Amino acid sequence: MNKLVLPKKKYKGIKIYCRICKVDNPKCNHFESFTYRVRVHIPGTQKSVKSKILNSKIYSDAVIEAINFEKHLITNNYQTIVADSAEGNDYSVIDSIIKYNQYLNGESEYAQFKKSVTNEHRKELIRFCKYFAKTLKKNKNIELTRIKDVSRQDVSNFYSWADNHYNPKTFNKCLNGVKGFFDFLIDIEEIEMKNPFRKYSRKQIQKTNIDSVTREEFIKILEAVDTFSPFVVLGGRGERKNMFKPYLKDGFRLFLLTGGRREEIVDLRWSHIYVSVSGVKFFRIQNLKVERNLNVDGLYKYIPINSDLFDLLVEMGYHEKKQTDDYILLPERKVKSKTIMDSISKSFTHYKNGAGIEKDISLKSLRKTYITWVHQVMQKETGLLTSHSTTKVLESYYIDPQILSVVERGAVEIKIFGHNS
């Protein structure tokens, strides 16, 4: 038989309903079980509806049935239950995850609910949801099971699975991610249910002391790039990967002398350099993390270019490139920024090990090192340079005077490792 369809300008409340999956607008192939269903909102309530599975599979006749059903409800003050009733939306487990993915991808049909998250964060959240669905699949058909039928035992099974697969920090992130998934279903999709993940025991995370990097250690890592074998063996098949990249040493130094996050440093351009009225140079870049957290655009952060950083920029071609829009690091790139980020992170760890350094440090430790030395100079004003407090921007090419004074002072006084590096 032909698959049921809805016209672009459909009658309000009419959905295509699958009698097997028991969901509206199904994604399944149970075409023979498709029918029309109408949902009528009950005035004076937020989410309550009365619904009826319509007899006709001819759309025009189904509309007439829907109109008569609504008239019947109005006449009886919405007290009479006809055929079936439903509270809020109703999706299967698999359809719920599809809905959540669309929402995280900014595809909500309602403008006020459009979500803006990075693609990596979206993938991570959906991955947690898929793991949850995978544990459900051991005992239930996730294409037929309604999301509101998830039980305490289902939560317990997933809790045990996550406990065996993740360290405490990732465990908490995973459980919180699935809790957020159910929050979406309840708050945005208006499914009448309690969040089955609203209460669970979080794991205690032991505070780790991630050491900053000393001057001697940093020099050893730079030397290891030239002297230590770049090859590492992957997996059990003996595959060898070359960790060396010609931009590594410049990249490590940029990270140390700017204190920036990976995406900020890898995508730094010469055109991001500005000069204040007093002649002090600084980077002006988008504050991507804060923009994402606040869901706004047009926020910037400012990185003072001190003498150490300026010397590095001169080595990298400042006088020839300063008026261009070229990337500072690997300008002739043929790979994505994410590839460069991952390469620098993994290579730092490789050459740190090659330098014989056993401390628990990684590429992120360079940012901590920068902040540590900045704090020696800036004290309570450190947050204005590291985006740990709100940054105010007046106009596109002007900085809040308070921030400008801090940037200028930082450019003059900040010395990583206390002296020229």
Element order, helices and strands? EEEEHEHHHHHEEHHEEHEHHHHHEEH
- Kindly report how far apart the N and C termini lie: 75 Å
DSSP, total strands? 12
CATH homology superfamily name of the largest domain: Intergrase catalytic core
**How many helix segments?**
15
Mean pLDDT: 81
Q: What is the CATH level 1 assignment of the largest domain?
A: Mainly Alpha
What kind of oligomer do you see?
single chain
Percentage of residues in helical conformation: 40-55%
Query: What CATH architecture label of the largest domain applies?
Result: Orthogonal Bundle
Strand order of the largest sheet: 2-1-3-4-5
Structural class: alpha+beta
- At the third CATH level, what is the topology name of the largest domain? hpI Integrase, Chain A
What is the 3D shape? Answer: elongated
Q: Estimate the strand proportion.
A: 5-15%
InterPro entries: CB, DNA_brk_join_enz, Integrase-like_cat_sf, Integrase_catalytic, Integrase_recombinase_N, Tyrosine_recombinase_XerCD
Organism: Flavobacterium weaverense
GO molecular function: DNA binding
Family: Belongs to the 'phage' integrase family.
Word description of this protein:
By secondary structure, the chain is of the alpha+beta class. The protein has three domains: 74 residues, no CATH class; 95 residues, no CATH class; 204 residues, Orthogonal Bundle (hpI Integrase, Chain A), CATH 1.10.443.10. The chain contains 15 helices and twelve strands. The strands form four sheets. The chain has a five-stranded antiparallel beta sheet, covered by helices on one side. A three-stranded antiparallel beta sheet has the order 8-9-10. The chain has a two-stranded antiparallel sheet with strand order 6-7. Helix 4 runs antiparallel to helix 5.
